[in-house]
Amino acid sequence: MKKYENAVFLDSSFVISSQILNDLFNDKAAKLISNFENTKVILILVPLVLDEFWFTINKALKQMMPAGFNRKSLNRLSRVTENLLLLPGLRIVNPIFKTTHVLDIPMIMAKYDLRPRDALIVKSMEILGVNKIATFDSDFDRVKGISVVK
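Request: output the structure for the sequence above.
Response:
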């Protein structure tokens, strides 16, 4: 699998904040994105993060439109996704997990007191050779070998 140098892994907290204008961290996400673009950083996004992104956006849309998920909501979700995919330098990558990688997840969870999804992100970063992460989740501050971009 290709190793990504000069890359930043995008966590779900970051991508969600970058796309929701009234989010507490939206301005900070916008500034980081501008900095990434100016420094030609490769932005790594994995399907696991997209899953949480869509789940969160969908949940917010359902709260805004309690009648249920309809064509209008689907169009909004598609537009937000399209906007996310326009980030300069974005690469969507699906790391290949071997059995030994999967067996590492519980150890990562225990060692750094992480949720399973965050441990999967840590392992994905390791597999992809990425040691920087854009996130607003302080749990990643505990992980040795990972630098949180702020």
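The chain has one domain: 7-149.
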